[in-house]
Amino acid sequence: MRCFAGGLVIVCWLAVLCGCAGVSSTDYLEPHVLNIREGSQSIGTSLGGRAIECVSLGGGEELIVFIAGIHGSEPAGVPLVKRMIEELRADPALLDGRRVVVVVNANPDGLAEARRFNDHGIDLNRNFPAGNHSTTRDRHGQHPLSEPESKALYDLFNSLPRPARVITLHQPLKCMDYDGPEATTRPLAEALADASGLPVKKLGSRPGSLGSWLGVDQQIPTITVEFYKSDTDLSSAELWERYGRMMMAAVSYPAPPAVE
Ligand SMILES: [Zn+2]
């Protein structure tokens, strides 16, 4: 036994010397290719063992991706995307040749605990491999995609065609923030501001956020919708009353939504 342990130490030491100990610094960037099918499926599992559900609707070339619940203390987006899915399933003509992919609850453990972070205490929206990812704060993760929830979203985006736009749903800064090419993303943000009453406001690209990774680095129009804190207290019907037109405008842009 002692001999085995000693041998193990030597092997590990040699492995370190030749640089082949464990994964290389960028192995975490290898995407796991998901087969995103029409309907609902799990794209990953949270630290707490909860499925990360993804719904894909329609098969058009223009792809719109919605992400709700990445901060578990900001729950208003979750019932909103669920209601939007119901509306689009009830009347697929609303898709009008588009494809809509929805991550209903990107941080299910956080949502269950009404907590911003995942079970490791990491802010998932600071854990993407954006050029501005920072490891100076414990909450950002030791490296990008250190968390299974952020890795599931990374794999999802790598498995999909390039989206025409990405809509992420947050609270409580009551504005329409955006990242991406100014000429195309600003008008989109303004259209969604008109439909929601939330003013356009540039908050600045947060390190390792989806807005930084997709909007800044990849120049994909990315909208960060910031609802009111008090929207947490609204029923699903009240949320839809207030923001349903904006959600459908995000689908049908640049045309106005087909339904109120
Ligand atoms: Zn947030």
Strand content: 15-25%
Order of helices and strands: HEEEHEHHEEHHEH
What number of domains? 1
**Main sheet characteristics:** 7 strands, mixed
Oligomer: single chain
**How confident is the prediction overall: mean pLDDT?**
90
- What spatial form do the alpha-carbon principal axes imply? globular
Task: Count the E strands.
Answer: 7
Assign the CATH class: Alpha Beta
Which class best fits the helix and strand makeup?
Answer: alpha/beta
In CATH, the architecture is 3-Layer(aba) Sandwich
Ends: how far apart?
72 Å
Counting DSSP H or I runs of 4 or more residues, the number of helices is 7
CATH homologous superfamily? Zn peptidases
- Supply Rg: 20 Å
Draw up the topology in text:
Blueprint: H1 2-17, E1 39-45, E2 51-57, E3 62-68, H2 77-90, E4 98-103, H3 108-112, H4 148-159, E5 165-170, E6 173-179, H5 182-196, H6 210-217, E7 222-228, H7 236-252
Parallel strand pairs: 3-4, 3-5, 5-7
Antiparallel strand pairs: 1-2, 2-4, 6-7
The structure holds zinc ion.
Zinc ion binds near residues 71, 74 and 170.
